[in-house]
Amino acid sequence: MGAGLVAKAALGHRISIVSFGLAQVLIDIEPGVRMIRDDDVLHGISHTLWGAIVVGVVAALLAPWLIRMIVGRYNTEVAHYGFTRWIYPESVSAPAVWLGAFLGTFSHLVLDGLMHADMAPFAPLMSANPLLDMVAHDDVYGIMTVCAAVGATLWMIRWWLSVRAQQPRPD
Ligand SMILES: [Zn+2]
């Protein structure tokens, strides 16, 4: 989620973090199933360019429903406790949903490609994984952990500033 949180901090309402997150879950269903089956190759068609496009489309189509559910639940809670100014807009633009979904699958493809030897991201055009080991495995985790912490913090600050800007000034 590190890449998504940095993008969210930078782009605000222009990208959906829910559709980014949903894309992460959907794209890793295949490796999850293959792990249970004890397959030799875990990262198959879902971790190719074509797979990432298909998963991105599915994520973008499902995300509006998930956004309404998550944000609706959150808004019910904050309204219940009287924090009405923290109510979050429930509608997200279609471009924000699609951007989240495709940034989700493509960043996942690149980051997994750096770490997993069983991937062939450009299959069927190329059976090798040209991304492998361009960045060390532990560095990918380290960089993404920092990105997640920095991105989440900046996103919260950005949101807090926008909520504060909507308040009537005492003068
Ligand atoms: Zn993956």
TrEMBL record:
Bilayer-crossing regions: 47-71, 92-111, 140-161
GO terms assigned for molecular function: hydrolase activity
Keywords: Hydrolase, Membrane, Transmembrane, Transmembrane helix
Pfam families: YdjM
InterPro entries xrefs: YdjM-like (IPR007404)
Ribosomal protein as UniProt keyword: no
Superkingdom of the source species: Bacteria
Protein name in the entry: LexA-binding, inner membrane-associated putative hydrolase
Organism: Melaminivora alkalimesophila
Lineage of origin: Bacteria, Pseudomonadati, Pseudomonadota, Betaproteobacteria, Burkholderiales
